[in-house]
Design a protein that fits this description.
- The radius of gyration is 24 Å and the shape is globular.
- The chain is built from 25 helices and five strands.
- It starts with a helix and ends in a 5-residue tail after the last helix.
- It has 529 residues and is mainly α.
Length: 529
C-alpha cells in the first residue's frame, strides 16, 4: 500500500493541476516518482501536465508509461485523446478498447473521463459507441453544459431526434443563452409555422455579444425563417452573420486559388511518380463541393449489403501530408503539394487504408469515404489506389453557391473559409469546375460525375449507374436509403432520413437578386446556368 504522504502528494498534485498550477502539480508528481518509480497515478499527472503545456509527444510517452504500470479508465481515455491529436486513429481505438476493459472490470471513472471517451469515439465516427459515455457523463455532472451538449449532438447523429430535442431543451433551460444548443436544436428537423423557435432565437440573438454566438444564432434564425416562408428576412440574417464572421478571418480566395493552381502544375510529376505495392482494396470515394448530395450518395451506396460507410475521413489528406514531410499548419497547402509529388504513391495508398481501418464499423468490408474535399486529390487517389472508384457530385452552380453560403461548416476548419462570402464561393466553384474538367481530361472514364438533380428526378436509373460504376450488383435497399440506420454526422443528417424530395431544386431562385454577384462571376467564367 502506498504511504500516506505519497497519497497526499498525489492528491495535492491533482488539485494543483485542476487549478492550472502546472509547476506545482509537476513538482509534486515528480516527488512521488522519486519514491515510487512505478506510480501509475504520478506518471498520469506528469503526462497531463506535459499535454497541457503543449508537449503532446512527451505527454503521450508518460501516459503510455502510466497505463503500462496499471491501466486506468482515465489514463486510457487521455491516451486515446492524445493519439487522436497525433492522427494515430488505430492506436486511439486500441486505447478506447482498453478503457472499456477497465470499466467492465469495475474500475472507477468520473464524468469528465466518460465525456473524454465519448468525444474520442465521436472523432472516430463511432457515434453509437459514444452514446453510453456521454449519457454517463451527464448523469455524473448533470449541470455541466458541455457534457449535455455532447450527448444531445450524439443523439442527433444516430437519429434519435426526439431524445436529442429533449436534451437540447434541457440544456437551454439551464443555459438560455447557449448558442450551440440553439443552433443544434434548430438543425434537428424542418420547422413549421406552427412549430418553430423563431421568437426565442430573436430574443437570444438580441442579447448575444460574443461573435461566435451571434454567428450560430444568426444561422439558426435564418434557417427557421426560411422554413416558415420568410425567405427575404432569412437571407438578410444569413448575410449579416456571414459578413461579420468573414471580417474575423485572415483569408482571401487567392489562397485557395493558389492551391488549385499548384495541384494542376504538379500533376505531371504525380502522373509519373512510382506506384509500388499499391493496395488491392477498392474503396468508393464520393467527392464534390459540399452540400451537393455527397451524403445522399453515400447513404445510397452504404445501403448495399456489401458496403459500409466510413464517413468523412481525413485519412487521404493526412496520408499525403505525412508523405510530403512538410510540417506546416495546414493539411493542404502549396508546399505540401510540391513536396509529395515525387513520393511513392503506393505508400500513400497503403497509409490511407491503414488509417481508414479504425473508422470502419465492420472490418474487412468494402467501404465508402465521403469527404467532399477529396476532389483536390482525385488524381492522386486514382493512382495510389488503382481499384478505387470515384464519384463526383454536381449540383446547379447557383444552388451550390447558395447551399454553401447557408451552411455553417466547422469554424475551426480552414477548408471552408471561402463559404462566408457569395463572391468567394462563386470563385471557388469556378476553380472546382476547372479542376474537375482537368481530372476528366487527364483520367477519362475514371470519375463518374452525378448530377444531384438527376438523382431526385430519376432515382432508380441514376442509382443503377452509381452501383454499376462501383462494381456493385443491384439491390432494392439502395432505393430506400432513408431507412439506413447508420449514424450521420454531417449537416445533411435530417435530410437523408427522408425519402427523396424536390423542394431543394432551384432554391436559388428565391434569392436571385441577392445572388447576382455570384451569377456574374460564374457567367464570366463561361459556366452554363
Amino acid at each position: 500500500m502506498m504511504p500516506h504522504f505519497l497519497l497526499s502528494n498525489l492528491k495535492q498534485a491533482r488539485s494543483a493541476l485542476e487549478q492550472g498550477n502546472l509547476p506545482k502539480a509537476h513538482s509534486l508528481a515528480m516527488a512521488v516518482v522519486a519514491q515510487d518509480a512505478r506510480s501509475a497515478a504520478a506518471y498520469f499527472l506528469l503526462g497531463v501536465c506535459e499535454i497541457t503545456r503543449g508537449n503532446i509527444r512527451a505527454g503521450k510517452d508518460l501516459l503510455e508509461t502510466s497505463v503500462g504500470f496499471e491501466p486506468s479508465v482515465e489514463g486510457c481515455a487521455q491516451l486515446a485523446r492524445v493519439f487522436l491529436l497525433l492522427r494515430r486513429d488505430a492506436d486511439a481505438l486500441a486505447a478506447l478498447q482498453e478503457a472499456e476493459s477497465c470499466l467492465n472490470a469495475g474500475k472507477e471513472s468520473d464524468a469528465i473521463t466518460r465525456d473524454t471517451i465519448g468525444c474520442a469515439y465521436s472523432r472516430l465516427g463511432m457515434h453509437t459507441a459514444s452514446l453510453a459515455h456521454f449519457e454517463a457523463a451527464t448523469r455524473g455532472a448533470p449541470s455541466n453544459a458541455a457534457f449535455l451538449y455532447n450527448w444531445a449532438v450524439a443523439l442527433s447523429f444516430v437519429g434519435c431526434i426526439d431524445e436529442a430535442d429533449k436534451a437540447f431543451e434541457a440544456l437551454i433551460a439551464r443555459a438560455p443563452d447557449n448558442a450551440r444548443a440553439h443552433h443544434g436544436l434548430s438543425g434537428l428537423r424542418r420547422q413549421t409555422p406552427e412549430r418553430n423557435h423563431v421568437p426565442r432565437l430573436r430574443a437570444t440573438l438580441a442579447r448575444a455579444e460574443d461573435p461566435e454566438a451571434r454567428l450560430l444564432l444568426g444561422y439558426a434564425l435564418s434557417k427557421e425563417l426560411e422554413e416558415i416562408g420568410q425567405a427575404k428576412e432569412s437571407f438578410q440574417f444569413l448575410f449579416d452573420a456571414n459578413k461579420a464572421h468573414k471580417k474575423q478571418l485572415a483569408y482571401s480566395i487567392e489562397q485557395d486559388e493558389k492551391i488549385f493552381g499548384a495541384i494542376e502544375q504538379n500533376w505531371p510529376l504525380y502522373a509519373q511518380a512510382p506506384v509500388n505495392n499499391a493496395p488491392v482494396e477498392a474503396p468508393v470515394f464520393i467527392i464534390g463541393m459540399p452540400r451537393t448530395g455527397t451524403t445522399l450518395v453515400d447513404r445510397i451506396i452504404s445501403s448495399h449489403p456489401d458496403m459500409v460507410s466510413a464517413g468523412e475521413l481525413q485519412a487521404f489528406p493526412i496520408a499525403v501530408k505525412a508523405a510530403s514531410g512538410v510540417r506546416t499548419r495546414l493539411v493542404l497547402d502549396v508546399e505540401t503539394i510540391a513536396k509529395a509529388a515525387d513520393k511513392n504513391l503506393g505508400m500513400i495508398g497503403r497509409d490511407y487504408i491503414a488509417r481508414a481501418r479504425s473508422h470502419l464499423p465492420a472490418q474487412g468490408m468494402r467501404f465508402s469515404d465521403k469527404f467532399p474535399g477529396n476532389f483536390m486529390y482525385a488524381g492522386l487517389i486514382a493512382r495510389a489506389l488503382p481499384s478505387a472508384r470515384i464519384i463526383c457530385l454536381r449540383r446547379h452552380p447557383m444552388d451550390t453557391v447558395l447551399s454553401n453560403f447557408k451552411n455553417l461548416f466547422a469554424t475551426t476548419s480552414r477548408y471552408y473559409d471561402y463559404s462566408y462570402s457569395i463572391e468567394d464561393i462563386a470563385r471557388y466553384y469556378v476553380r472546382f469546375d476547372r479542376l474537375m474538367r482537368f481530372w476528366q481530361k487527364e483520367m477519362p472514364g475514371r470519375i463518374l460525375e452525378v448530377q444531384y438533380e438527376n438523382i431526385v428526378l430519376d432515382q432508380e436509373n441514376i442509382t443503377r449507374n452509381i452501383l454499376a460504376h462501383c462494381g456493385l450488383s443491384w439491390n432494392d435497399a439502395c432505393l430506400s436509403f432513408h431507412k439506413n440506420s447508420a449514424a450521420v454526422s454531417t449537416p445533411s443528417a435530417s435530410q437523408v432520413r427522408r425519402p427523396l424530395y424536390r423542394d431543394a431544386l432551384e432554391r436559388w431562385k428565391q434569392h436571385e437578386e441577392a445572388l447576382m454577384p455570384a451569377r456574374r462571376i460564374l457567367e464570366q467564367a463561361g459556366i452554363a446556368l
